Amino acid sequence: MKMFTYGTLKDVEMLKEYGATDIAENAYVKGYQMYSYRNGFPITKKTGYAGDIIYGTLFSIPKEVVLYTFDRIENYVPGRERIHNMYNRERVFVRRNDRLISEFEIAHMYLANEDYFIDHYIEENLIESGLWEDAVKEVMPWNLGK
């Protein structure tokens, strides 16, 4: 199963332990913004604006890992009404920096339930760079090696 992750689930060593292959750390999606939720983890918002970009990791992983591990981490229950999930897994167009700009792949991405996080989509929480590492550096400067 193709996945695109941008925060907690993008650690390459962890992904390899779960059996991920075809790992590309130079991937991104357009039309989404990233925010920091209480300086603990990233949340996303779909904007549809091509200038809004989130950078992350694209990879293939066994479907069972997604269903039984990643979905639980992201509090996503397939088939449950979207409003009751903390994140929803959706298919998105993913591009890679080492490919032509017109080339893309379709992968699954966890998108924050905007109703659940509505009070946190404020300017001071916006991660303008689209890189979760930039937010982590600000709140956990000792974690620069990760």
TrEMBL record:
Protein's name in the database: Gamma-glutamylcyclotransferase AIG2-like domain-containing protein
Xref: InterPro entries: AIG2-like_dom, GGCT-like, GGCT-like_sf
High-level lineage: Bacteria, Bacillati, Bacillota, Bacilli, Bacillales
Pfam families recorded: GGACT
Segments forming domain Gamma-glutamylcyclotransferase AIG2-like: 3-133
